[in-house]
């Protein structure tokens, strides 16, 4: 892919973003720059940020403006250019989940993760496959289910994939990345305590076990307040915030071990050393891919999704 023109970040942001968003995005870029600096000191090879990391998780509001103004081109938006610089400077693969505006295809918005090689080139992008319709997560007001399938990116440091947030509740989503050869599946998320905290420690960990791969569950922290009230459609009082994003990011391994979680309340950088040989070693012991009977499920599922399918229930 072509080398980006290295204009300054400020120039680039000014050209692409309205003034209010510019301040916010610019501050987040600076914060991430400092965190990536520390990651580089720790020898990190691949880094992944939280879901929609350049913006408030404003999809609960169902208001289009100003939030849609945070959307950027995955290929050459200011955030991608910023991450390209980081990747090249630190020889680090960067996974950057953003709100994407696809200018080449009707200006449509997507929830996207851009994967940038340690060379600084944009390796590609992947989109959130499952869009929540639960509680305040009204994301289908903004974008629809991803249309790029389950790409796996071959990097110098291993084959990686990105299962964005709500996709972690869907075992087949993890599975397809694994079928395509992922050693590490990142799960950049934005989720809140009341809704999912009890599920959080289980889902990515179980996916690592079931798919003989590493998984990295990444959540945001803190509370975000919005100017206008919104309701959750549950008869309860209108409110101006989502509730607590509980952090607790962790990495899980195919042998069922996991790291401790990051803080529930503070920003953090979790550095983990992954021995990718473990994927094949565990695979050779447990053989889930060999014993999976995928042809049988493929046949049965192909039938089950037909509108005239009659569930196989045996009655007296
Ligand atoms: N960001 C997102 O998809 N959140 C949905 C809630 C959840 O999956 O816990």
From TrEMBL:
<protein>
    <recommendedName>
        <fullName>Beta-ureidopropionase</fullName>
        <ecNumber>3.5.1.6</ecNumber>
    </recommendedName>
</protein>
<keyword id="KW-0378">Hydrolase</keyword>
<dbReference type="GO" id="GO:0033396">
    <property type="term" value="P:beta-alanine biosynthetic process via 3-ureidopropionate"/>
</dbReference>
<dbReference type="GO" id="GO:0003837">
    <property type="term" value="F:beta-ureidopropionase activity"/>
</dbReference>
<feature type="domain" description="CN hydrolase">
    <location>
        <begin position="9"/>
        <end position="276"/>
    </location>
</feature>
<dbReference type="InterPro" id="IPR036526">
    <property type="entry name" value="C-N_Hydrolase_sf"/>
</dbReference>
<dbReference type="InterPro" id="IPR050345">
    <property type="entry name" value="Aliph_Amidase/BUP"/>
</dbReference>
<comment type="similarity">
    <text>Belongs to the carbon-nitrogen hydrolase superfamily. BUP family.</text>
</comment>
<dbReference type="Pfam" id="PF00795">
    <property type="entry name" value="CN_hydrolase"/>
</dbReference>
<comment type="pathway">
    <text>Amino-acid biosynthesis; beta-alanine biosynthesis.</text>
</comment>
<dbReference type="InterPro" id="IPR003010">
    <property type="entry name" value="C-N_Hydrolase"/>
</dbReference>
């Amino acid at each position: 892919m072509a080398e980006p023109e290295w204009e300054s970040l400020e120039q680039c942001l000014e050209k692409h973003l309205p003034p209010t968003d510019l301040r916010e995005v610019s501050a987040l870029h600076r914060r991430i720059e400092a965190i990536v600096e520390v990651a580089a000191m720790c020898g990190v090879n691949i880094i992944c940020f939280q879901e929609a990391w350049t913006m408030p998780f404003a999809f609960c509001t169902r208001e289009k403006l100003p939030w849609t103004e945070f959307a950027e081109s995955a290929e050459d938006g200011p955030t991608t250019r910023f991450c390209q610089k980081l990747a090249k400077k630190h020889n680090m693969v960067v996974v950057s989940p953003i709100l994407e505006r696809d200018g080449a295809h009707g200006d449509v918005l997507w929830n996207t993760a851009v994967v940038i090689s340690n060379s600084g080139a944009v390796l590609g992008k992947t989109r959130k496959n499952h869009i929540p319709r639960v509680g305040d997560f009204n994301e289908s007001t903004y974008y629809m289910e991803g249309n790029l399938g389950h790409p796996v990116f071959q990097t110098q440091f291993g084959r990686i994939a990105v299962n964005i947030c709500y996709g972690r509740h869907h075992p087949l989503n993890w599975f397809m990345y694994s079928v395509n050869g992922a050693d590490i599946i990142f799960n950049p998320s934005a989720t809140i305590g009341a809704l999912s905290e009890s599920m959080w420690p289980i889902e990515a960990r179980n996916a690592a076990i079931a798919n003989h791969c590493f998984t990295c569950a990444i959540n945001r922290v803190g509370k975000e307040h919005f100017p206008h009230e919104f309701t959750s459609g549950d008869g309860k009082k209108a409110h101006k915030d989502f509730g607590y994003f509980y952090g607790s990011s962790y990495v899980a391994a195919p042998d069922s071990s996991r790291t401790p979680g990051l803080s529930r309340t503070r920003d953090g950088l979790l550095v983990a050393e992954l021995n990718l040989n473990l994927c094949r070693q565990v695979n050779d012991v447990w053989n889930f891919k060999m014993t999976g009977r995928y042809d049988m499920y493929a046949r049965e599922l192909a039938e089950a999704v037909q509108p005239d399918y009659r569930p196989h229930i045996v009655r007296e």
